[in-house]
């Protein structure tokens, strides 16, 4: 498979054994670790980190769920058990800066861990990409051209409204010279994909429509070639929606990290 | 003299009754648990000025925002006129500020234009609700009293403004006729057009002028006392509600300190938790919510901006964030009445969950924060939904089966799905 990595992904344990510290910890998240589609995004984030020569590491098998779905579902015990265990690991490795592949992990570690003893600089991978572009370390060249292609971006709730990150993902897309088209409900008025608040793990309540269908209809109205996502849960919901609308041949759903990696031929 | 005494009696009774009811509302809000919302006073003040006074969040929808701004400005500014009415009423004077000359004329002219604006604004609001029947104003929770409440408010405001303008028209006509006591003051750009509709006899005009004057001021005291029973309470509560609103990122849910102590004790046997306060996890009833949640409920004016952006509601689910707020207020009022009757508010066999808000509603929420973003006065329905979920899960272990399975997976293998922790890094190795 072309997505296979031609380099080793360093773990914190390995770095510690060598007496080294990374510049940034890549928090992969459960979806990024286990979900087949999200794994691609995870590998692409690693490719970007590797490409720019940033010293990074992952926790590997020492990572565990942040506790986000437990907290949103109302199980504060389980959340805090997870949080404190993770904080112990992170603090033991003296972690200062974290990049996450998922807005839910991002929100939880950034906002809810400090009160439990875990204070880190936390950024989402779209912010990392924006920073790298701003610093001139990452360009959109040497790979697939997105020039003039119609891309619409779906704001994940926990990145957008939850933490007011609206610009970073758009900046990353602007670097592609693509044609960015906004949906009617975007940014602070963005419509949820339907997966948040632990909905990902249950059947929806009775209604007249699934939320991801409502969203995908709106996305398709912009007649995009690519629907850009930046959350593994949104990715699942949007892809399901595109398939149900029989549009999976015409419209790709891609994470911003994937788009960036492709544009750079990584 | 008799009229002056009558006026003072009505004014005192109006203010006294309102204070009595307001005290009860504050008592009800204090049923809620403590919440620390006094940090960062400067930022809080700025939020209040921007969101409540400046109505910045209203302008996301420009048409109602514009109409609302006129009604709001009219309401606030015409109150200067009420001050004059109060002084006239107490001392038996007539247009006591008239001595200000040109400034007075300017003020009265502005009030008249605003009064017309309020009149038209309210008329358009009534049309939007009752003739165009905007979807935002419908929904299961908007039947019966809430629907009437909205119309009563609008009709009352129209009547008050009509009385104000007719009073001025009669006054202007009396002034033109040179009637005693009616010195020539004021400028009447709007009510001059009503003058021809009024009778020409001095007696009839005085009756109309006095009648409207009394109707206007008694109406205002009546309206003041209507507030505690109405969604219109927002004209007062919008200010404290925005001042005490959440300043943290919307995505952040509060960490429960009571749980932190227990978890710390579990992970570290040497940790001795501080004396735990008695109470349950999450909220079964209104007394398990914080005073901020309860103040939110009294502040809600049922505009439905939250519900109209809620992804669950849009796709036909039962959940409506507006209903969450209305249910919370209804239950709190019921508890308050129970306290008045028996001293105990909670032995009626009812609770906020199940008696008012169903499980189906709380589990339909995606926690997307569209509702909190949309609220023009920073009400937070999501905080209440979260507390109800916490109660259902931690006190009752009653969650949908698939949620329980997900929680079990996190507990057993550190991921919401059933995968082995040993396989966590496979993505880096597999082809």
Automatic annotation (TrEMBL), chain A:
Record keyword 4Fe-4S present: yes
A cellular-component GO term for this protein: plasma membrane
Pfam family, one: CCG
InterPro entries per UniProt: Cys_rich_dom, HdrC_iron-sulfur_subunit
Gene Ontology molecular function, alphabetical: 4 iron, 4 sulfur cluster binding; metal ion binding; oxidoreductase activity
Keyword set, alphabetical order: 4Fe-4S, Iron, Iron-sulfur, Metal-binding, Oxidoreductase
Origin: domain of life: Bacteria
Position of the signal peptide: none
Domain Cysteine-rich: 25-110, 151-239
Name of the protein in question: Cysteine-rich domain-containing protein
Species: Pedobacter caeni
From TrEMBL, chain B:
PROSITE patterns noted in UniProt: 4FE4S_FER_1, 4FE4S_FER_2
SUPFAM superfamilies referenced in this protein's UniProt entry, alphabetically: alpha-helical ferredoxin (SSF46548), Respiratory nitrate reductase 1 gamma chain (SSF103501)
Chain segments annotated as transmembrane: 6-22, 65-83, 103-127, 148-167, 179-199, 211-229
Alphabetic keyword roster: 4Fe-4S, Iron, Iron-sulfur, Membrane, Metal-binding, Oxidoreductase, Transmembrane, Transmembrane helix
Cellular component aspect of the GO annotation: plasma membrane
Pfam families noted in UniProt: Fer4_9 (PF13187)
Single Gene Ontology MF annotation: metal ion binding
Claim: Transmembrane is one of the keywords in the record: yes
Keyword Acetylation: no
Superkingdom assignment: Bacteria
InterPro entries from the UniProt entry: 4Fe4S_Fe-S-bd (IPR017896), 4Fe4S_Fe_S_CS (IPR017900), HdrC_iron-sulfur_subunit (IPR051460), Helical_ferredxn (IPR009051), NarG-like_sf (IPR036197)
Domain 4Fe-4S ferredoxin-type span(s) in chain numbering: 291-321, 355-387
UniProt name for this protein: 4Fe-4S dicluster domain-containing protein
Organism: Pedobacter caeni
Lineage: Bacteria, Pseudomonadati, Bacteroidota, Sphingobacteriia, Sphingobacteriales
